[in-house]
Amino acid sequence: MTASLTPRRDRIRRALELLRNETTDQFDDVVGFTAHEFVDPELAQRERDLIFGSVPSIVAHSSEIAHPYDFITVAMPRNNIIVVRQKDGGVKAFVNLCRHRGALLEKEEKGRCRFFSCPYHRWSYDPDGSLRMITRDNTFGTIERKKYGLVEIPCEERHGLVWVVDNAQAKIDVAAWLGPEMDEILAGYGIDKLVCARVGTFDEPTNWKIMQDAFLDGYHIQYAHPNTAGKVIHTNVMAFEDFGRHCRFIAPRKSIDRWLEEDPGDTPLDPYVTETHFLLPNSTLLRQPDHFQLLTFRPDQRDPAKSRMEMRLMVPTVEDSGLTEEHWNHLWDKNMDILISVLHDEDFPILRDSQRGMASADAGDMLLGRNEVANQVFRREIKKLLADGSVADGATVNS
Description:
Elements: H1 8-20, E1 31-33, H2 41-52, E2 57-61, E3 70-75, E4 80-85, E5 91-95, E6 110-112, E7 116-117, E8 124-125, E9 131-133, H3 137-140, E10 152-153, E11 155-158, E12 161-164, H4 174-187, E13 195-204, H5 208-214, H6 221-224, E14 239-242, E15 247-252, E16 273-279, E17 283-287, E18 292-299, E19 307-315, H7 318-321, H8 325-358, E20 366-368, H9 373-393
Antiparallel strand pairs: 1-20, 2-12, 3-4, 3-6, 4-5, 5-10, 7-8, 8-9, 11-12, 13-19, 14-15, 15-16, 16-17, 17-18, 18-19
């Protein structure tokens, strides 16, 4: 079901109608999958290469590297990278490795520096990746310095987000990857005017696809979160739009129930819903009434049963919020604490056990329902990327 950009007002009212009819948007068929997709080392390597090594994925909000020489380090599925704000305001990414003897160049998760200095022999590099200095170069020997700058990774900043393709040989075009619909949607949100107020990082013994699936799922809320999200958001009601690679859906909050028996007329219903966007390959962007949450999921560099989740709160600045700095910090600390508590107490235990279950030799076939629409998009598009990459490589698809 491919959709054009339906006005938000109409989509919210469609969600309300679905709720009245005790149903949800659905795909045509139930689809199957198998446990090996979450435990197979060969498939995990193909995902690193054919997915993360081929298409753009989000690594940060722009405000995390707001000033020249600000940097972050990221463990991507194929490379350890440094992402650094340039003097001219642009952003570049590099493999986090000294070209002399392969030492890790930067261990800090974030910081600011005018050059990167290797801890092993003190070779140094400018923020643009060029080789700045070879220590005791009079004894080292002659090399062509331009060849031994940092290896650059394709990187682009768009819509207030920093994207990379985890492959030095690739190219990046975020607008083309998003497609006209999702590019327009993100452009309209003004995410570039927000700041990343809080970041949480979680290393979990769980395949990245199990993690991503959980945060596209409106079917589990009542059962996995009975005392938290289940009290706030309706279960299994999603007004859904499919944009091919990406999708979005509106889920009604229980506060909308006042309008079940009454026509809302021209009353804005925006405060009564949460809107979720899936950005292929590995991001969930949640639009809340007063902020955005960005969830990203990356596979481990070696183990298919491990992944890293990052959660970001992207919010109005202190000045734009109209709050005092103390109140602003208290608000987002409280939000983050609640989210982390739900993750640790409710989501992660289920997902860890799911990974354990997938390791069973006789797990049997499993299913995604017609109602699990965003999960079906995720699976459909991941399979396409693996198939497309395998055709390009002359390989055989075995997933």
